[in-house]
Each structure stands twice: as C-alpha cells, then as structure tokens.
Amino acid sequence: MALGPGRSAKAIGIDAGNCFDRPPTGVAVYARNLTTELARSHPNQSFVWHLRSNRYLRSFRARLPSNVTRRLGERFPGHPAVGPVALFHGLNQRLPEAADAPMVATFHDLFAMTGDYSTPGFRERFAKLAVETARRANHIIAISEHTARLVEGLLGFPRANVTVVHHGVEALDAPAPAEERSILEAIDVTPPFVLHMGTIQARKNVGRLVEAFEAAGSGRQLVLAGSTGYGGPDILSRIERSAARSRIRLPGHVGDKVRSCLYRSAECLLFPSLDEGFGLPVVEAMASGLPVITSDTSALPEVAGDAGLLVDPLSVDAIADGLARVLASPDLRAELAAKGLMRATAFTWRRCADQTWNAYQRLLAG
User: Fold this and answer.
1) Contact in structure between 170 and 350 (CB atoms under 8 Å)
2) Which of 98, 191, 270, 290 has CA atoms 20 to 30 A from the CA of 303?
C-alpha cells in the first residue's frame, strides 16, 4: 500500500521521544527537524508520535503540527503493540518487539561496536539493541554511507534494504553585533579563536586536539563548547596541565544563540573526531561560513567533501600542521569558507524529509 495524495486511512507511527531531549543531542536535532518537516510537507497524512511518559509530558510544552497526535508508549520499546499504523519508524536505532506494519529504523552510528568510546556495559547493551533492531527492521535509514557500510558489515543487514539519508542543517539566527559581543564577553571569549563544537569525550579526540593547539602556538584562544562525556575527566585533567590553559575556554553545553555567535566569530572549526556517523558541527560551521578542519576518517570526508581540510586524527602533528596552515593563510580560510557555504546547501531538512518519505513509499509498494 503506497501512501496516496489523500489522507491515509492509517497514520505513520514514529518513535519521536528524542524530539524533546534536553539538552538536545545530534539525534534530537535530527528527530525534531525530520518529524516537523514530514508533517509540514504532507499535511494530508496523519502521524502518531509514540512517547514514553517523561517525553510525553514534556511534549505538551511544544505546539505539535495539526496532523500529529501523541500516543503514550510507557513500555516502548518492549511493548509489542504500536497500534493501527501504515508503518512505524524508530528514529534512534530501536524498534518495538513486533508490529502489524512494516518497520523502519534510523541508524546514526555504531561507534560503540568499533572502538573503546564507552563503558563495557554500554557497549554490550548497545550491541544487543543494534542486533535486535536490525533483525526487526524491514528497512534501515542510515545517515551516511559510512554508517550504511557498518550496518551491513557488523549487523549483516542487506545493503539493498538500506537508504542513505543525510541530515540537514538548521538555520541559526544571528544576534545583533552588540548582543553578540555581550554573549562572548559573558563566556570570556575573545575573537579570533579556534572552535571545537561537541562533547568533551574520548571519541571526539579532544586530548589530541589540545596537544595540537599547543603545538600550533598561535596565541589565540581555544573554545571547547560542549558537555562532558566518556573519558571527559581525563581530558579535563590534561587541559588543566596545559601550557596554554589560560587561553582555553570551557563554556559547557551552549544553546542556539551562543552556538551561532561562536560559529560566526571563530577563525576555524577544529573537529578531528575519531568516529562520526555524520558530524553535524561540520555542516553547521560550513553553513555559517566558517573554515573547517576535520578528520579523514569515518563519515567526515563524506560530509565535508572538498570543503574541509582533512587531517589524520591519530596524528597530533597532522592536526597541528592543518591548524597552523589555516590560521596562517587568509586565502586558504576564504577558500574553505566559500566552498563550505556551497557544500552546506546540499544538506537541507526538506531534502532529508523527502528522501525519508520516498523510502516509506518504496517499502509500502514493495
């Protein structure tokens, strides 16, 4: 049964709980933008957002699209029933035990199965859930070719039943110049500076990033914007011992307005992550006209294309050299910024929603 132009007799069910995550993660940004764009683009289609109790109550603070209704799914994903839907889409690598409809799962990454980036207990739970979700899914949406290859190789899921759908990029409002100066002053940040946007954790390679910043010797500030994750205490301890400590700023997790100010005021984004399913900060930076230095591994070359300066994330020397080159050359910064602005136009939430909808159609027609 394909979804036709008139209002469908059955709704599309979506596990939309991540839409209301606080603070919002990359998965939350994806869930919020995809579900909103799907509802906007298909006003004659009904959608049911399945929410566990904590997210269900939180959802009442937001105004839902008129063609979206809530459903309390207290025991999801263990609950076997998802109601009479045309299909069910799990947005974060989990699905119900069973459903009387085809099921689609979005896979963001499998880093817990490829490296020591989390606790053993988390890795075990993650792997078990990933295997179970792949077994239950009729179709998988992967947010990059890199993730699609891992889904096939690690989970044995047939590549023919995987659709790659890239993220979009949010338009961040630009504060007025006076407000921007006030925001940066409040977090003790002085342009020009080097920016890293993301959790302070082992997978993001922040330890080597700090070493490379020291080696580059630019005299600028380094702003590490993000909360603390796995391996964070060791990284923070290393930062405290850094010879450049007086120039390192740790504002923690930042909201949209501060994030916009940082992207607009920085000299470059330094993002040498070890493993990314996509890498939203890279696209956000490019859309803001900010030159990007990122890794030559995982999904990052796929996302950055020729608009980023790619470095070996395992080599402090390579990261430091890339940073020194960008900071020393206004021409290189201008070239990367121009390419990044062009590259970012390929990543829209409307395109993400359209490709997701097309995957629904192919699944129901097949």
Assistant:
1) no
2) 191
Confidence of residue 2 (pLDDT cuts 50, 70, 90): low
Residue with tokens 């580059």: 216
Measured between its terminal Cα atoms, the distance across the chain in Å is 8
Torsion of CA 145, 151, 154, 159, to 10 degrees: -90
**153 Cβ contact list (under 8 Å, min separation 6):** none
CB atoms near residue 169 (< 10 Å): 23
d(CA 128, CA 131): 5
**Mean local confidence (pLDDT), 300-327:** 98
Secondary structure percentages of the chain, helix, strand, coil, to 5: 45, 15, 40
Instruction: Give the total residue count for the chain.
Output: 366
* Cβ count near 123 (within 10 Å): 17
5-51 confidence digits (pLDDT tens): 544 568 999 998 888 887 778 899 999 999 999 999 999 999 999 98
**Taking Cα atoms as reference points, which of 21, 75, 24, 25 lies closest to residue 50?**
75
d(CA 150, CA 133): 14
Q: What is the pLDDT of residue 295?
A: 98
Longest dimension (CA), the chain: 65
Contacts of 316 (CB under 8 A, 6+ apart): 208, 211, 212, 215
DSSP strands (E only) in the chain: 11-15, 47-51, 68-72, 85-90, 103-107, 139-142, 162-164, 193-197, 221-225, 248-249, 268-271, 292-295, 308-311
- At residue 274's C-alpha, the angle toward residues 119 and 298, to 5°, is 115
Q: What are phi and psi of 311, to 5 degrees?
A: -135, 160
Q: How far apart are CA 336 and CA 307, in angstroms?
A: 6
Q: Position 65: which residue type? A: P
Q: 293: which strand partners?
A: 270, 309
Contact 219, 249 (CB under 8 A): no
